[in-house]
Write a structure and sequence with these properties.
It contains eight helices and seven strands. The radius of gyration is 18 Å and the shape is globular.
Length: 233
Protein backbone atom coordinates (compact mmCIF):
# COMPACT_ATOMS: atom_id res chain seq x y z
CA UNK A 1 0.00 0.00 0.00
CA UNK A 2 1.43 3.36 -1.04
CA UNK A 3 1.39 5.66 2.04
CA UNK A 4 1.20 8.68 -0.27
CA UNK A 5 -1.62 7.41 -2.50
CA UNK A 6 -4.23 9.93 -1.33
CA UNK A 7 -1.81 12.84 -1.73
CA UNK A 8 -0.74 11.63 -5.16
CA UNK A 9 -4.34 11.25 -6.30
CA UNK A 10 -5.20 14.78 -5.15
CA UNK A 11 -2.27 16.23 -7.10
CA UNK A 12 -3.03 14.08 -10.14
CA UNK A 13 -6.69 15.11 -10.35
CA UNK A 14 -5.82 18.81 -10.16
CA UNK A 15 -3.02 18.55 -12.72
CA UNK A 16 -5.29 16.67 -15.11
CA UNK A 17 -7.74 19.57 -14.96
CA UNK A 18 -5.17 22.15 -16.16
CA UNK A 19 -5.62 21.40 -19.90
CA UNK A 20 -9.32 20.66 -19.43
CA UNK A 21 -9.75 24.25 -18.21
CA UNK A 22 -7.60 25.68 -20.99
CA UNK A 23 -4.96 26.96 -18.59
CA UNK A 24 -1.86 25.59 -20.30
CA UNK A 25 -0.52 23.99 -23.47
CA UNK A 26 1.70 20.91 -23.54
CA UNK A 27 3.47 20.86 -20.13
CA UNK A 28 3.15 24.54 -19.23
CA UNK A 29 1.80 24.24 -15.71
CA UNK A 30 1.79 22.26 -12.48
CA UNK A 31 -0.18 21.69 -9.31
CA UNK A 32 0.99 20.38 -5.95
CA UNK A 33 -0.95 19.01 -2.97
CA UNK A 34 0.40 19.41 0.59
CA UNK A 35 -0.04 17.18 3.63
CA UNK A 36 0.76 19.28 6.73
CA UNK A 37 0.85 16.28 9.08
CA UNK A 38 3.59 14.62 7.06
CA UNK A 39 5.12 17.93 5.90
CA UNK A 40 5.21 16.56 2.34
CA UNK A 41 3.76 17.59 -0.99
CA UNK A 42 3.04 15.72 -4.22
CA UNK A 43 3.75 17.55 -7.46
CA UNK A 44 3.65 16.97 -11.22
CA UNK A 45 6.79 15.43 -12.74
CA UNK A 46 8.83 17.75 -14.92
CA UNK A 47 8.18 17.82 -18.67
CA UNK A 48 5.55 15.08 -18.73
CA UNK A 49 2.47 15.80 -20.83
CA UNK A 50 -0.83 15.82 -18.96
CA UNK A 51 -2.25 12.91 -20.96
CA UNK A 52 0.55 10.67 -19.72
CA UNK A 53 0.13 11.47 -16.03
CA UNK A 54 -1.03 8.92 -13.47
CA UNK A 55 -1.31 9.14 -9.69
CA UNK A 56 1.83 7.01 -9.44
CA UNK A 57 3.81 9.49 -11.54
CA UNK A 58 3.32 12.29 -9.01
CA UNK A 59 6.56 12.99 -7.11
CA UNK A 60 6.49 13.35 -3.31
CA UNK A 61 8.87 15.95 -1.86
CA UNK A 62 9.54 17.13 1.71
CA UNK A 63 9.93 20.72 2.89
CA UNK A 64 13.70 20.45 2.71
CA UNK A 65 13.47 19.70 -1.02
CA UNK A 66 14.31 16.01 -0.75
CA UNK A 67 12.46 13.54 -3.00
CA UNK A 68 10.72 11.12 -0.65
CA UNK A 69 8.97 8.98 -3.24
CA UNK A 70 8.82 8.86 -7.02
CA UNK A 71 10.76 7.58 -10.02
CA UNK A 72 10.65 10.83 -12.02
CA UNK A 73 12.15 14.28 -11.52
CA UNK A 74 9.69 16.73 -9.95
CA UNK A 75 8.53 19.91 -11.64
CA UNK A 76 11.21 22.53 -12.22
CA UNK A 77 8.99 24.85 -10.12
CA UNK A 78 9.22 22.58 -7.06
CA UNK A 79 11.43 25.01 -5.15
CA UNK A 80 8.86 27.80 -5.59
CA UNK A 81 6.14 25.55 -4.19
CA UNK A 82 8.42 24.55 -1.30
CA UNK A 83 9.12 28.16 -0.33
CA UNK A 84 5.43 29.05 -0.40
CA UNK A 85 4.44 26.06 1.76
CA UNK A 86 7.11 26.95 4.30
CA UNK A 87 6.34 30.67 4.43
CA UNK A 88 2.53 30.51 4.07
CA UNK A 89 1.61 27.65 6.47
CA UNK A 90 -2.14 27.70 5.70
CA UNK A 91 -1.58 26.58 2.08
CA UNK A 92 -2.63 23.05 1.12
CA UNK A 93 -2.35 23.32 -2.67
CA UNK A 94 -0.49 25.47 -5.22
CA UNK A 95 -1.04 25.94 -8.96
CA UNK A 96 1.26 27.55 -11.50
CA UNK A 97 0.31 27.97 -15.16
CA UNK A 98 1.11 30.11 -18.17
CA UNK A 99 -2.50 30.96 -18.96
CA UNK A 100 -2.48 33.66 -21.63
CA UNK A 101 -4.45 36.54 -20.09
CA UNK A 102 -2.82 36.26 -16.67
CA UNK A 103 0.59 36.07 -18.32
CA UNK A 104 -0.25 39.21 -20.34
CA UNK A 105 -0.64 41.19 -17.10
CA UNK A 106 2.50 39.59 -15.65
CA UNK A 107 4.48 40.52 -18.78
CA UNK A 108 3.13 44.08 -18.61
CA UNK A 109 4.20 44.05 -14.93
CA UNK A 110 0.78 45.27 -13.85
CA UNK A 111 -1.49 44.34 -11.00
CA UNK A 112 -5.14 43.72 -11.84
CA UNK A 113 -7.51 46.35 -10.40
CA UNK A 114 -11.04 45.45 -9.36
CA UNK A 115 -12.83 46.67 -12.49
CA UNK A 116 -16.10 44.86 -11.90
CA UNK A 117 -18.27 42.73 -9.69
CA UNK A 118 -16.94 39.41 -11.03
CA UNK A 119 -13.55 40.27 -9.56
CA UNK A 120 -15.14 41.67 -6.39
CA UNK A 121 -17.06 38.44 -5.83
CA UNK A 122 -13.74 36.62 -5.50
CA UNK A 123 -11.46 39.29 -4.07
CA UNK A 124 -11.91 42.77 -2.66
CA UNK A 125 -8.44 43.94 -3.68
CA UNK A 126 -6.29 44.30 -6.77
CA UNK A 127 -4.41 41.12 -7.67
CA UNK A 128 -0.76 41.98 -7.01
CA UNK A 129 2.12 41.69 -9.43
CA UNK A 130 5.64 41.31 -8.09
CA UNK A 131 8.55 43.45 -9.26
CA UNK A 132 10.89 41.92 -11.79
CA UNK A 133 13.50 39.63 -10.28
CA UNK A 134 16.88 41.35 -10.23
CA UNK A 135 19.97 40.00 -11.97
CA UNK A 136 21.67 38.90 -8.77
CA UNK A 137 18.69 36.75 -7.78
CA UNK A 138 18.58 35.07 -11.18
CA UNK A 139 22.19 33.99 -10.72
CA UNK A 140 21.12 32.08 -7.61
CA UNK A 141 18.47 29.37 -7.44
CA UNK A 142 15.93 30.89 -9.82
CA UNK A 143 12.86 28.91 -8.71
CA UNK A 144 13.65 29.40 -5.03
CA UNK A 145 14.11 33.10 -5.62
CA UNK A 146 10.74 33.18 -7.38
CA UNK A 147 9.14 31.92 -4.17
CA UNK A 148 11.14 34.42 -2.12
CA UNK A 149 10.00 37.22 -4.45
CA UNK A 150 6.34 36.29 -3.95
CA UNK A 151 6.74 36.13 -0.17
CA UNK A 152 8.62 39.44 -0.05
CA UNK A 153 5.98 41.13 -2.22
CA UNK A 154 3.17 39.97 0.06
CA UNK A 155 5.01 41.19 3.15
CA UNK A 156 5.81 44.56 1.63
CA UNK A 157 2.21 45.03 0.48
CA UNK A 158 0.91 43.65 3.81
CA UNK A 159 -1.15 41.06 1.95
CA UNK A 160 -2.59 38.03 3.73
CA UNK A 161 -2.08 34.87 1.66
CA UNK A 162 -5.33 33.48 3.10
CA UNK A 163 -7.32 36.44 1.78
CA UNK A 164 -5.38 36.94 -1.47
CA UNK A 165 -4.86 33.46 -2.99
CA UNK A 166 -3.22 34.60 -6.21
CA UNK A 167 -0.27 36.58 -7.52
CA UNK A 168 1.37 37.48 -10.81
CA UNK A 169 5.14 37.13 -11.04
CA UNK A 170 6.43 39.92 -13.26
CA UNK A 171 7.57 38.73 -16.66
CA UNK A 172 6.65 35.16 -15.78
CA UNK A 173 3.09 34.20 -14.87
CA UNK A 174 0.50 33.36 -12.22
CA UNK A 175 0.67 31.36 -9.01
CA UNK A 176 -2.48 30.55 -7.04
CA UNK A 177 -3.15 28.54 -3.92
CA UNK A 178 -5.86 27.35 -1.57
CA UNK A 179 -7.02 24.92 1.10
CA UNK A 180 -6.56 22.02 -1.33
CA UNK A 181 -5.03 21.34 -4.70
CA UNK A 182 -8.53 21.52 -6.20
CA UNK A 183 -9.12 24.96 -4.70
CA UNK A 184 -5.73 26.18 -5.93
CA UNK A 185 -6.73 25.07 -9.44
CA UNK A 186 -10.12 26.78 -9.05
CA UNK A 187 -8.36 30.03 -8.15
CA UNK A 188 -6.16 29.68 -11.25
CA UNK A 189 -9.29 29.41 -13.41
CA UNK A 190 -10.85 32.44 -11.69
CA UNK A 191 -7.65 34.47 -12.06
CA UNK A 192 -7.43 33.74 -15.78
CA UNK A 193 -11.06 34.78 -16.34
CA UNK A 194 -10.65 37.98 -14.29
CA UNK A 195 -7.54 38.87 -16.30
CA UNK A 196 -9.37 38.18 -19.55
CA UNK A 197 -12.21 40.50 -18.55
CA UNK A 198 -9.78 43.16 -17.35
CA UNK A 199 -7.86 43.05 -20.64
CA UNK A 200 -11.07 43.49 -22.62
CA UNK A 201 -12.04 46.37 -20.34
CA UNK A 202 -8.72 48.13 -20.96
CA UNK A 203 -9.03 47.50 -24.70
CA UNK A 204 -12.37 49.30 -24.75
CA UNK A 205 -11.27 52.01 -22.33
CA UNK A 206 -7.54 52.31 -21.52
CA UNK A 207 -8.45 54.81 -18.79
CA UNK A 208 -11.03 52.56 -17.12
CA UNK A 209 -11.35 53.22 -13.40
CA UNK A 210 -11.67 50.54 -10.71
CA UNK A 211 -15.13 49.79 -9.36
CA UNK A 212 -16.18 52.14 -6.53
CA UNK A 213 -15.46 50.85 -3.05
CA UNK A 214 -19.09 50.50 -1.99
CA UNK A 215 -19.80 48.09 -4.86
CA UNK A 216 -16.62 46.11 -4.18
CA UNK A 217 -17.57 45.73 -0.52
CA UNK A 218 -21.14 44.74 -1.34
CA UNK A 219 -20.14 41.97 -3.72
CA UNK A 220 -17.40 40.66 -1.47
CA UNK A 221 -19.55 40.69 1.67
CA UNK A 222 -22.60 39.09 0.07
CA UNK A 223 -20.47 35.99 -0.58
CA UNK A 224 -17.88 36.12 2.18
CA UNK A 225 -18.99 38.56 4.89
CA UNK A 226 -20.54 37.74 8.28
CA UNK A 227 -24.04 38.15 6.80
CA UNK A 228 -23.30 36.46 3.46
CA UNK A 229 -26.38 35.26 1.63
CA UNK A 230 -25.02 33.91 -1.66
CA UNK A 231 -25.50 30.18 -2.21
CA UNK A 232 -27.21 27.53 -0.11
CA UNK A 233 -27.00 27.35 3.67
Amino acid sequence: MDPYQTLREEAFEANREIPQRGLALYTWGNVSAFDPDKALFAIKPSGVVYEALTPASMVVVDLEGKIVSGDLSPSSDTETHRVLYREFPALRGITHTHSAHAVAFAQARKSVPVYGTTHADHGAEAIPCTPLMDEEATRGHYERETGNLIVRTFRELKKDSAEMPMVLVAGHGPFTWGKSAAQALYHAVVLEEICRMALYTLTLDPAAAPLPGHLIRKHWERKHGPNAYYGQR
